[in-house]
């Protein structure tokens, strides 16, 4: 079991159990309001958890209360061995985080850990990845994803054999980056790990206890889960990290569920054989054929011999046997006329036989020797010989399933070709096999033995026809073989009953729809309305579908001759905008149809959007935006400014502004009231894919090809951070409190809000396996919807962090009115009137017929009563007569018995006398034979004695001869033993001397090196002491130098001062000398006078 740090991947139950039949929406809202009034106990704050971070959660745990109490006891120091736990469970409990908490409320357990990739602050703890929990929490203590309220519309169709049954009520299939386990409307999720790119393959063990999921990645991996507990058991990796292959394309368990075969894709095409319960790769081999253009399709393990692996390619078959750590090839003799066929699927039959389906409609039966024993060609002639069940009436079945193929044919005016008999799937039953062809024919075969040859032979028993030419892609049979599940190319799953009760033989067999008809292509557009819980989507499968996200049902499907690029649903839910390649069409949403009403000359409209009020709408025409009135269809304005294609439109809540983002790197905010550009932001190095604004229209948030999430205010980027991956969609709640981002790898990120530049302030959840194309939030901020290129739609319920629901100022009530045309209404009224009159007539006729039948039954009852009374009297008389006859017969029988006894006694006496005489004669013969035997015995004893004497003499001679030889050999052995003892003594002496020499040499070396070591230690100690003295002297000298330097600096300062004083005094001396000279001059002058 994979661990991260000290965290365990232990799970009690998977947190993901979807409930398709959700309760009434108004009841949910009322319950949410009631829950708000209940005060909850305060919980201790976890310093390592940032409550400001958003999260996604889908659901509550499915653990039982007993398991939760057991976990709590173990967390508080209880002895796990006394609780009866197994070794693996003990290890799981030991590895559990001490800070994981379980809260018992109403016998339900809160989630432990998280499966999402959570990026928090640097010092925050990371949650356990292996425990599945899907909740995106928001900064204002908001989250979305209560599993019981969420819905998933989709099925991952690029995986071969993507449908399995766990039991009669539980099925398993992939959707996006998750595997869904559904049971009676409840769903559990098994999520792909964050290291994996997407699901590439999956399989279920024969005992239906384990699920293996192959994941794409730089190093492909396989995760094995326990289906019951949804606990990861093992993670297996490809044989090397340097391989170029990125995915496992096919997986297969052995019959004992301990081994697994896994086929890697090209270019290596390496077949892996694992002992998965031990986590070991025990053998690998290149299973590809010599033809570089061929591909491997499937691998499987022989159910009766777990060492034999069968590999099916598009034009080759191979078998391998595991022996002594290697996979050895087993020769398979395939005729040339068969090897030219294109193989599609295969399955192991009972008795080591293999059934292979081909593209030209053949079912080939291979025996254990590898040769073909039977070839069944399924075509029109073959099917015409098999009668359909009396109830297999397509007109009846159409009433019970949602046949998207039938609608597509009606809209396109084309018919499905029945000439394609390619065998797409084969499943095995206890009595034979079932083959499904691409044109919708399902044929059941029974196993029998050919009387002439004694070989196994499969004989067709019955057939089913999928209605409206549905294309069979995968089949799976229930564990009890009570019914068959069929997955169609339209991504719908049907159930066909195989066991019919005797009283139902003449009733009508109906195909039951297990799931809705999902999109089977990339989803291009998605939109919601305000007044109804409706969701509209369009896909490149050329269909438009209307979903009810509360009931989880698809209410309307319609196919068109060309694909729709974009859709927008009016807030009332009564009108629909659809962008086609040639026109933009305005449609009325009727109760059973999308009715055309108006079209606009806008070609290839990739984005269109109704305003929040619904009175106007905007549509993209290349690099311009055209705004129209919803009621008059008047072109209000044309917004020009983009130099590239416009990728995104967003209306502000008050409908005064439109935010547009384009591939040219420009984001414009348009003022619709003043018909002018309010603000702009241009970054030509980035192609923006989505932009939104806050309710006041002042702040814009945008994502694009530069992997940045930007906050733009007044045409300037005020905040941004690098998400590390291209973001394709961004969504802001209508309350302006939650921000979500969809990425190119299918993940949904809940951004910390208010927006910050911290790149770690988001939580990431992987829901899809392709880039997210649309991200929308319902008008009451209760649901978040995401659509992706993988064809899946996820719906998450938004709630507070403490699961109290979002605070709403008012409860949004949904309308139940529908739109219907006057002609349809009149037609339905006329039809109802006719049906009412017909009903009244039938009622009167039925009452009259009932009265007639009552009278007829009364007369018949009287006649039968009289008849039975007469017959009873006759039987009484007959009984008395028979009793008299019986008494007479008993007397007669007793007399006959006495006569027979007397006769038998006389005959017995005669037989005894006869056989006594015969016995005496035989005794005389026996005495004679005994005498003769004694004579022969004496002769034989004489011969035996003579032979013993001769034998004894020969034995003595031989013994003497071999005793002489033995003495010679004994002497030779003694001599050799003496030589061996001498050699042994010499060898022992040599060993002793060598040991003494070695010991002396070792002692000398020890003394030498110990002496050297002591000298070195003394030298080291001396040097250490001198080093200390030198260091002290150095420090003293350094200090003296520093003192001298400082003293020198002082003296220099004094010198400068003295020099200054000297210069001053010199100047004074010069002045005094001049003064003296002048005075002398004056003196001499005066003296002369």
UniProtKB/TrEMBL annotation:
Residues 959-1054 form a coiled coil. Pfam families: Beta-prop_EML_2. The keyword Coiled coil applies. InterPro entries: Beta-prop_EML-like_2nd (IPR055442), CFA-57 (IPR052993), Quinoprotein_ADH-like_sf (IPR011047), WD40/YVTN_repeat-like_dom_sf (IPR015943), WD40_repeat_CS (IPR019775), WD40_repeat_dom_sf (IPR036322), WD40_rpt (IPR001680). The keyword Coiled coil applies. Residues 31-58 are annotated as: Disordered. Keywords: Cell projection, Cilium, Coiled coil, Flagellum, Repeat, WD repeat. WD repeats lie at residues 516-557, 639-680. Residues 31-45 have a biased composition (Basic and acidic residues). SUPFAM superfamilies: Quinoprotein alcohol dehydrogenase-like, WD40 repeat-like. Residues 524-798 form the EML-like second beta-propeller domain. This is Cilia- and flagella-associated protein 57.
